[in-house]
Write a structure and sequence with these properties.
By secondary structure, the chain is of the alpha/beta class. The protein is 30% helix and 16% strand. Among the domains are: 74 residues, no CATH class; 107 residues, no CATH class. 31% of the residues are buried.
Length: 381
């Protein structure tokens, strides 16, 4: 809020006209980079900041251009159905806005109403116009199959990240995958047979339940980041899945289970450097599991509310002492919250080395993990 007030206060000042490279404007004259910095410091997902953006958009033509780019660049926050419908109609009614969208996430706030056939048809029209998409996520898992309706005819030459959480769309997704072999990150709800290895050959990240990972991880040696999400293991890991874990460097577990529920999985994670665990069971024996991961450098732990114990600083310090390859531990209560960080520092010579060097661990500090850190580990600081 203070940032926004400071930005709005800038309108009471005029910068010298001798400074070069100003945008043509009818309002306060500011350098091009400053326009962009002011606008991008405001969050589209914040109601207060959206109001500030509305004010800026009416201040001058230069601000209007930057605000428009900022508003449409990334649509990745949940909206009520009525607001989402208005948004997709806006995209359909003007050829200017849809090509500006680079990141689109379909996620609605549930108010009891469900989209009808007309809404899906309009959304398909809007998706056809979003030709510059780089990231596309569909997060409404409790819907009937929709891939044929929504993705028919869609082509995105720059698409790198794709997530689809609807079961039953396996066959309908095949033509989409064939049109987008350049996809690098894929997260799926999957209930079908493994696709051909030549399909999406450039994957380096795969996420989903065990069925999806059994289908997409084996035979793709480029994949080094894996996100396994499940509350139960109705589909057991295959021998091919275990074998492919040897290539993985970043492994995420999310769900109400223990590491021990996956028989001897830690022994197969020989190359893993980063381990993320969300919904950690207090019964999990991390010491025994981590000792099998000889290359582990970083541990990220999130406890679910209501567990009998939380991951503590004391426990983190013990893990750092007992596992010499481990350099950093981030831990907190929920993935949308601030985390504490413990990291191994550089020890003065007189303090010694090895597991006795407790003082080598820095005091915890707050670390913010972005909202989509589980699905896109590149975002983790």
């Amino acid at each position: 809020m203070n940032t926004t007030r400071t930005i709005l206060n800038l309108f009471s000042y005029a910068l010298p006209s001798t400074i070069p490279n100003f945008l043509p404007t009818q309002g306060p004259q500011l350098p091009v980079d400053l326009y962009r910095h002011i606008v991008r410091s405001l969050s589209v997902s914040s109601p207060y900041d959206r109001h500030a953006l509305s004010v800026l958009a009416r201040a001058s033509r230069s601000f209007n251009e930057e605000v428009t780019l900022h508003l449409y660049h990334k649509i990745n926050y949940p909206l009520p159905l009525k607001a989402h419908a208005a948004f997709v109609r806006t995209l359909c009614n003007s050829t200017r806005y849809a090509p500006l969208v680079r990141v689109y996430t379909f996620e609605m706030i549930n108010h009891g109403s469900s989209p009808d056939r007309a809404f899906w048809s309009t959304l398909n029209s809007a998706l056809l116009l979003m030709i510059n998409l780089v990231e596309f996520r569909f997060l409404m898992w409790n819907l009937p199959p929709l891939a044929h309706t929504l993705l028919d005819g869609c082509g995105y030459p720059n698409l790198k990240i794709f997530q689809w959480d609807i079961l039953g769309d396996e066959e309908s997704l095949m033509p989409f995958f064939e049109r987008h072999p350049q996809i690098r990150s894929l997260t799926l709800a999957w209930g079908g047979h493994p696709p051909d290895y030549a399909l999406i050959p450039h994957l380096d990240f795969i996420g989903g339940d065990m069925t999806a990972l059994n289908a997409f991880l084996p035979g793709r040696p480029r994949i080094q980041k894996v996100h396994l999400e499940s509350s139960t293991f109705e589909d057991q890991p295959t021998a091919e899945f275990y074998c492919a874990l040897g290539q993985v460097k970043w492994f995420t577990l999310q769900g109400n289970f223990r590491l021990a529920d996956l028989p001897d999985i830690a022994s197969y994670l020989s190359r893993v450097e980063v381990l993320q665990i969300h919904d950690l069971s207090p019964r999990d024996d991390l010491d025994a599991q981590l000792s099998k991961m000889q290359n582990l450098r970083r541990l990220i732990v999130s406890d679910v509310y209501g567990t009998e114990e939380e991951f503590s600083e004391l426990r983190g310090r013990k893990l750092l002492r007992d596992h010499p390859t481990l350099n950093c531990i981030d831990f907190g209560k929920d993935i949308d919250d601030f985390y504490n960080r413990l990291s191994r520092g550089s020890a003065p010579a007189e303090q010694g080395t090895g597991s006795d060097a407790v003082d080598f661990v820095s005091r915890p500090k707050s670390v913010y993990l972005p909202l989509n850190w589980m699905a896109d580990p590149d975002n983790v600081p």
